[in-house]
Known about the structure:
- The protein is of the alpha+beta class.
- The chain folds into two domains: 7-157, Four Helix Bundle (Hemerythrin (Met), subunit A); 163-247, Nonspecific Lipid-transfer Protein, Chain A.
- Helices cover 51% and strands 8% of the residues.
- It is built from ten helices and six strands; from the N terminus they run αααααββαααβββαβα.
- The protein has helices at residues 7-23, 41-60, 62-77, 81-89, 94-113, 130-152, 163-171, 173-178, 216-223, 239-247; strands at 120-121, 128-129, 190-194, 200-203, 211-215, 235-237.
- A four-stranded mixed sheet has the order 4-3-5-6. Strands 1-2 form a two-stranded antiparallel sheet.
- A hairpin with a 5-residue loop joins strand 3 (190-194) and strand 4.
- Helix 2 (41-60) packs parallel to helix 5 and helix 2 (41-60) packs antiparallel against helix 6 (130-152).
- The longest helix is centred in the middle third of the chain and has 23 residues, at 130-152.
- The termini are far apart.
- The mean pLDDT is 95.
Amino acid sequence: MAEIFQQPTDFKDESEALYTLMNNSADDVMSYTTKFKGWSFENIIGHLHMWNWAADLSLNDPDAFTEFYAKAGPAVQAKNLRAFEDKWLDGLKGRDLLQIWREFYLQMTERFSGADPKFRVKWGGPEMSVRSSITARLMETWAHGLAIYDTLGVQRKDHDRIKNIAVLGVNTFGWTFINRKLDIPKPVPYVRLTAPSGAIWQWNDPDNENYVKGKATEFCQIVTQSRNIVDTDLRISGDVAQQWMRIAQCFAGPPEDPPEPGIRYGA
């Protein structure tokens, strides 16, 4: 039986949900400012669009991706990404940007769906699989999209496709510490999450003293640094689990810190 490659469809569906929300909002919605570092909706969609384009480039033209990242990489490390993305967008703004973003991610989904999910592609750090590449795009869309839902006062209805993000969060336990030049603590915490559907997802060996338990949505919010742990109902026990959840980071790039308590806490 052929392997089912679901992640491109999950990426498309998450993108479509965000697009529909914004397309049905006020004409000037792209100018709204979020509580994510003061980014506007336009900043967020521009960011998603450029990195969707980069991921697509890494699949279809690796040499061109290398050339692109030689310019983008220094901006990432210097945390000067906004200026780089604005220059790359070359004046593309407002609802024109919204429509171009959608047109591209729909086309991109088709290209990723037709690719071998195990094929290795270039990125800013180590190479990764096609499956991991499109999962990262799903994660970014979901994480940044939350700031838009929050600003519009809409409670997002999550689906079990966020399991992709939960897996990424669990798998980057070690990366969180390596990225900060810290020793990786042991043992790895037990993670037990309740999916949006009510299913139970579990990772690592059961442990009554070192664990993270609760809603999958809130776990994903923490590992994407969309919420502070005190603004969730996650149950966290043990020094290792506590340390991890304070700094968890499932995305690439220099170390980032979660929002301060009470800054981002939902609609």
